[in-house]
């Protein structure tokens, strides 16, 4: 492991055009559950499968049940950034990391100090009225009961990408451009199975791909460096 950490450090030291692409595993060390591990959201007991609850059609059909799950499992306002978030923010402040592309919706990269963050799946910290477009905070959602309503009477929806919804095209274009232009691409804490986000790897044109994940990934044969472990523990050694 020490040899791999030394290689990671060397690759980071040798570049000022690094892009980080991360998933749920980046935030598990902050106490936020992932989706597909044995303790993840997809293995929880609910009346409906979680992947059905967090779909657009379910939100439209049964917003009250959607919000019961959403408040209990998807909003963690007390979560704090971990070592991975802080290290990435530090690398950006030193002019080495150009952008963070994240599948997470928890705002932890920004809380750690990262400035250029492309949120592929939106953020729980932004919510808007489906009728008039007025924005509301996450605190407002958590303090409300049942279906949160706007002053105009409209239903408030989290600014997150649900199943059956398309990604924000501007965010997607910026993410693709950052990955295309990257010298070093670090992918961490993601299973690389959720599309279209997982498909962003195909836009990387370089030969310095780094994969950091607790479990094996099918894309490892393409990587210049593969490290298995918790990303916070690994990044804290840089």
Automatic annotation (TrEMBL):
Cell compartment(s), UniProt: Cytoplasm
Keyword line: Cytoplasm, Hydrolase, Metal-binding, NAD, Transcription, Transcription regulation, Transferase, Zinc
Domain of life: Archaea
Molecular function in Gene Ontology: histone deacetylase activity, NAD-dependent; hydrolase activity; NAD+ binding; zinc ion binding
Residues where NAD(+) binds: 24, 28, 35-36, 103, 105-106, 121, 190-191, 213, 231
Pfam families recorded: SIR2 (PF02146)
Comment on bound cofactor: Binds 1 zinc ion per subunit.
Active site (UniProt): 121
Cofactor(s) needed for function: Zn(2+)
SUPFAM superfamilies membership: DHS-like NAD/FAD-binding domain (SSF52467)
Domain Deacetylase sirtuin-type: 1-238
Main location group: cytoplasm
One of the record's GO cellular component terms: cytoplasm
Enzyme class per UniProt: transferase
Record: residues binding Zn(2+): 129, 132, 150, 152
PANTHER family with a match to the protein in the record: NAD-DEPENDENT PROTEIN DEACYLASE (PTHR11085:SF4), NAD-DEPENDENT PROTEIN DEACYLASE SIRTUIN-5, MITOCHONDRIAL-RELATED (PTHR11085)
Record's function text: NAD-dependent protein deacetylase which modulates the activities of several enzymes which are inactive in their acetylated form. Deacetylates the N-terminal lysine residue of Alba, the major archaeal chromatin protein and that, in turn, increases Alba's DNA binding affinity, thereby repressing transcription.
Family classification: Belongs to the sirtuin family. Class U subfamily.
UniProt name for this protein: NAD-dependent protein deacetylase
